[in-house]
């Protein structure tokens, strides 16, 4: 089967009814990069920069970060790479960055919160990204955003770094794209403001599911209790893509959901046209979409989500649809 998927590498990701789907992959280390060619992904939709920090024994210096990002862009050979700023804290701890004991680390001092409280750390990272992408496109996104004002603060810091780079005569990126991850439910009630502020939004469905259903993603006792393909979560995801369409803001999804053909199918059915997944999932997901009639699925799925009396699990309906339609 792997061979079969390999054969799809160069095939354009068009659904049976002609919808163009953007398939990107997630990465975090140099060893992931060869997969960009092997999988046939169009780019890296999520580059987890914290991995470089997690495998290091001391805080990587600006130059080390710069060299690393430069190598990533070089290996990507023109395919777009979306760098996510540090997402540490919670379950991702850095031994050399002493954090205090937290009762609820998932809700604690992590990701963008930590970066905003350590502006030196954030500015160093932004500077390394700016320098590494001189003359190229730079795509930056921020993890765990809760309020739109956080984005404005980071944008100001970024602006300062840009001014600094140009003042000392360094070449700037040719194009800058600034985005936010949607992982915290509070952002669902700021969608229009959010989309006014960014060039793109990427749904982190792992964390968004954890927070909206109040289930610890790492606790097996509860993590399987609710379904990502249940009505509540699919309705949330649909509200996001509708806001994207309304605001003409590009929306993508980079959580685990995108890696499973059945849930990827559901995402296309509710309107997603761009997803980022683990590299090995690109082949299977492409095979699924080539055979998919999206309009037909959408009609079924929207009816199921609008039906407040519906009792049949949506997962079951999706399995039936997939079976009936090959
Ligand atoms: C997510 O939360 O869905 C996500 C992609 O980020 P991470 O898994 O790195 O938390
Ligand atoms: Mg996350």
UniProtKB/TrEMBL annotation:
Compartments reported by the entry: Cytoplasm
Sequence similarity: Belongs to the PEP-utilizing enzyme family.
Name of the featured protein: phosphoenolpyruvate--protein phosphotransferase
Source organism of the structure: Rhizobium herbae
Residues represented out of the complete protein: 427 to 752 of 755
């Amino acid at each position: 089967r792997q061979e079969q998927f390999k054969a799809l590498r160069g095939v354009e990701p068009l659904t049976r009814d002609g919808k163009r789907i953007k398939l990107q992959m997630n990465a975090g280390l140099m060893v992931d990069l060869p997969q960009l060619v092997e999988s046939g992904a169009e780019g890296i939709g999520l580059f987890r920069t914290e991995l470089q920090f997690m495998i290091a024994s001391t805080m990587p210096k600006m130059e080390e970060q710069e060299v690393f990002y430069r190598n990533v862009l070089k290996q990507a050979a023109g395919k777009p790479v979306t760098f996510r700023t540090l997402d540490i804290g919670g379950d991702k701890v850095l031994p050399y960055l002493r954090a205090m004991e937290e009762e609820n680390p998932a809700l604690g001092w992590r990701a963008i919160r930590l970066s905003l409280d350590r502006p030196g750390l954030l500015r160093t990272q932004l500077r390394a990204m700016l320098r590494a992408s001189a003359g190229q496109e730079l795509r930056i996104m921020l993890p765990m955003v809760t309020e739109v004002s956080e984005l404005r603060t980071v944008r100001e810091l970024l602006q300062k770094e840009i001014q600094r780079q140009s003042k000392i005569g360094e070449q700037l990126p040719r194009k800058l794209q600034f985005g936010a991850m949607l992982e915290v439910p509070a952002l669902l009630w700021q969608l229009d403001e959010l989309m006014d502020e960014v060039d793109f939004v990427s749904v982190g469905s792992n964390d968004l599911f954890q927070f909206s259903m109040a289930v610890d993603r790492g606790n097996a006792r509860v993590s399987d209790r609710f379904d990502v393909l249940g009505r509540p979560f699919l309705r949330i995801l649909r509200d996001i893509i509708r806001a994207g369409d309304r605001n003409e803001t590009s929306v993508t999804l980079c959580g685990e959901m995108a890696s499973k053909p059945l849930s990827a199918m559901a995402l296309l059915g509710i309107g997603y046209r761009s997803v980022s997944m683990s590299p090995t999932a690109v082949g299977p997901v492409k095979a699924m979409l080539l055979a998919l009639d999206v309009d037909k699925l959408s009609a079924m799925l929207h009816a199921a989500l609008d039906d407040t009396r519906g009792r049949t699990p949506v997962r079951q309906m999706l399995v039936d649809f997939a079976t009936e339609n090959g």
